Amino acid sequence: MASTVRLYRSVVRELNRSAIAPRETRNKVIASHFRKIFEDSLQGTKSDRFEKEARDAITFLRSQRVYKELLDRYNPLHDLTTEERIKATARRVGLDMPLTPEGEEDK
Questions:
Q1: Which InterPro entries does this entry report, sorted A to Z (predicted)?
Q2: To the nearest whole percent, how much of the chain has pLDDT over 90?
Q3: Are residues 103 and 95 in contact, defined by beta-carbon separation less than 8 angstroms?
Q4: How many CB atoms lie within 10 A of CB 14?
């Protein structure tokens, strides 16, 4: 029982750390589904497979969070549009993009 509670808390902790939206605006149904899954595992027979899959889910959530942090840190241009990326790259080498007249942008 203690290991299942520990696994549940680990899953909740990783979900909170990786969440983008504030806690008040998150979908409550998802949290209740996680809680129900873990409650069912406590009432049923303790399965080694369930614990392994829960640990795998925790590892996946943690890995995704760390991957996003590393991507943001070492590739700050990844979430920019093409035009913004070109301007940022030009600025990085000390250049500025030429201004284009408003009517000639798509030619």
A1: Fmc1
A2: 8
A3: no
A4: 19
